[in-house]
Design a protein that fits this description.
Elements lengths: L1 H81 L8 H42 L8 H7 L3 H4 L4 H4 L15 H9 L4 H10 L10 H4 L2 H5 L8 H10 L3 H33 L3 H22 L5 H25 L20 H17 L14 H4 L11 H28 L1
Keywords: Membrane, Transmembrane, Transmembrane helix
Length: 425
């Protein structure tokens, strides 16, 4: 009788021990799977933030171009209305002056229009990408039910697991879940049905491993070091619908600003050398304005050698230089109260101004020609250089800058070590 009582107490303690182990293991599994769900939601939240940042790369810049372009357009309209030089003027001069103002107005209007289209398209496609493709992976009801377990499942584990002896020959305890047993009873589904199940994400092993429903463990743990994911690939496909508008809005802005500076230079030269007959002021203004165009060209163009940029701007500045030279010759022997001779022999070289202006525009358009890569962007312009942030995976400017800085620091430290060694010697 005592032996049976001892056997019953031992069996009860053994049952309670395995039951507590089952409860502890299931609590740990539930915490692990819930943590995995939260991690995956955070991961997709980061994907959505990536898309928002990529869209802002276009929207914010284009909104700024709207404001700047509108201000420049108002300036060109002001020049048309009030930038009138008093007195008779050579016809070729008025033609060059108003054509330059018109070119400035057209390019600035084109920049505003392209930037408006790029901003609207990028924002629209970004919202479409976030609302249709990159959604937060909120678990459905079947997935939540697969995470839960019942104590009645413990009774179905079998006598060898329910009455397992601690430190016995059975080894580590492995529990069988209800979802696994149902999957084994149903058998292996076909390839098509399994593909549909993956699309709907009601995986039966979701509570156990979580790899199928929530991503592999190495991707979750090494997401920061992995390559851009599918959301970036989708964004790049949609970015092709507005990327060219973004790029050429910036180039149109550069062209419009250049022509606006040239129109102001024409007005100042006309006022100083035609209306008031003070050529020295016209010379100084021409040097200042043409120097400004040279500086903007070196800032805007990054894909050409410096001598090519210099040669390009020399061609662009030659019409103004020829105009100043012709007006200087025409002003010989003229007093401030006299009008300029409209039929002076010095004006025979005036067709060269329009010819050189056309050549400069053609050379500028050749510089703005898109490249033959996948993005097809005019990469010779600095404002477009980093527009496609995923265009060249082999080149990282931050690494190059870091390497240059590190090399300089390493060289300086090596010099200091050599000096210390010499002093010790």
């Amino acid at each position: 009788m005592v032996l049976l009582e001892a056997f019953g107490l031992a069996s009860k303690e053994l049952f309670d021990y395995n039951r507590e182990n089952y409860k502890f293991d299931q609590e740990q599994r539930l915490e692990r799977d819930m943590q995995r769900v939260e991690m995956q939601i955070e991961r997709f939240d980061l994907f959505r933030e990536d898309i928002e940042d990529l869209v802002k790369l276009t929207v914010d810049k284009m909104d700024m171009y709207h404001i700047v372009g509108a201000l420049f357009l108002s300036f060109t309209a002001l020049v048309y209305c009030e930038g009138i030089i008093q007195g008779p003027q050579p016809p070729f001069f008025m033609g060059q002056y108003f054509l330059t103002v018109a070119a400035s107005f057209v390019y600035l209007l084109l920049a505003v229009w392209l930037s408006m289209y790029a901003s609207i398209a990028s924002h629209s496609f970004g919202v479409r990408l976030r609302t249709r493709y990159v959604r937060l992976p909120i678990p459905n009801l079947s997935q939540i039910q697969s995470l839960t377990t019942k104590l009645s499942d413990f009774e179905q584990q079998g006598i060898s697991k329910v009455m397992r002896i601690p430190f016995g020959p059975q080894g580590a305890q492995k529990w069988e879940l209800e979802a696994e047993r149902k999957a084994e009873e149903q058998g292996q589904p076909s390839a098509q049905s399994s593909g549909n199940q993956r699309a709907a994400m009601p995986e039966v092993r979701l509570a156990d491993q979580g790899d199928i429903g929530f991503g592999r463990e190495d991707i979750l743990m090494q997401a920061a070091a992995s390559v851009p994911g599918k959301h970036v690939e989708l964004f790049r496909k949609l970015q092709a619908k507005w990327q060219c508008y973004d790029a050429y809005a910036r180039i149109s802005m550069a062209l419009g600003v250049n022509q606006m500076i040239q129109s102001v230079n024409y007005f100042v030269v006309g006022f100083t050398m035609i209306q008031t007959c003070s050529p020295s002021n016209g010379y100084a203004a021409t040097i200042i304005f043409q120097g400004c165009t040279f500086g903007l060209a070196f800032l805007d163009i990054a894909g050409l050698k410096k001598w090519k940029i210099f040669a390009l701007q020399i061609v662009g500045a030659m019409p103004m230089v020829i105009l100043v030279a012709m007006l200087t010759v025409a002003n010989r022997g003229r007093s401030g109260s006299e009008s300029i001779a409209l039929l002076s022999s010095a004006f025979y070289a005036s067709p060269l101004c329009a010819f050189l202006e056309a050549i400069w525009l053609e050379l500028f358009m050749m510089t703005a020609k898109p490249t033959d890569d996948e993005a097809s962007l005019p990469r010779k312009f600095r404002t477009v250089l980093f527009l496609d942030v995923f265009g060249d995976a082999a080149f990282d400017p931050t690494e190059a800058e870091h390497a240059a800085v590190t090399a300089g620091v390493d060289g300086k430290m090596e010099e200091l070590r050599d000096d210390a060694a010499k002093r010790e010697a």
